Amino acid sequence: MARTWLSIRVDLVEGGRSGPLWPRPGRVFAGARTHTFADLATAIDDAFARWDRAHLHLFERSQRRLLTSPEWDDVPDESQPSTGVRLSSLELGEQFVYTFDLGDDWTHLSTVAPARIDPAEVLGILPARPLPYWGWGTIPDQYGRDFDSDDGGTELGPHPGWSDLPPLRPHWGPRSRHGH
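Request: output the structure for the sequence above.
Response:
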């Protein structure tokens, strides 16, 4: 297959309760020029561990705005739905902003690589939608939680080591009477 796909680096700059992030976590995506910006939004949200998808998103490209949510009541005149705009409209080296959840403002800087890629060579497959193939950094929880808590106010307590795990591995589970 020829080098027809785009490589798009996406860095999480700020958002949620995290403020500006440093170092910035990021992912690199392979995307066909036939994929839409909505396809890219879904791939980004998957790769950045977004589990509550009931939020609007926004792409900003040199003053042009692209939106996915048709229920957005106050759509700017210059906007287009991201479901109808293909990645082929991107230029090599172009930078744009992707924002997920306009309330918490998870803002990403996206940069198209200066050369196209061959997905079979880079990914080993030809995926049906944009797919991350490289990544780094710690992704903050979408709602700023550090651990699972039903009431949001439970104290975490001391680190249990492996004692709270089922004995499915030799060092997991409560210690025996002999200290093993």
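The beta strands are 6-15, 19-20, 26-31, 57-61, 64-67, 80-81, 95-100, 106-112, 131-136.
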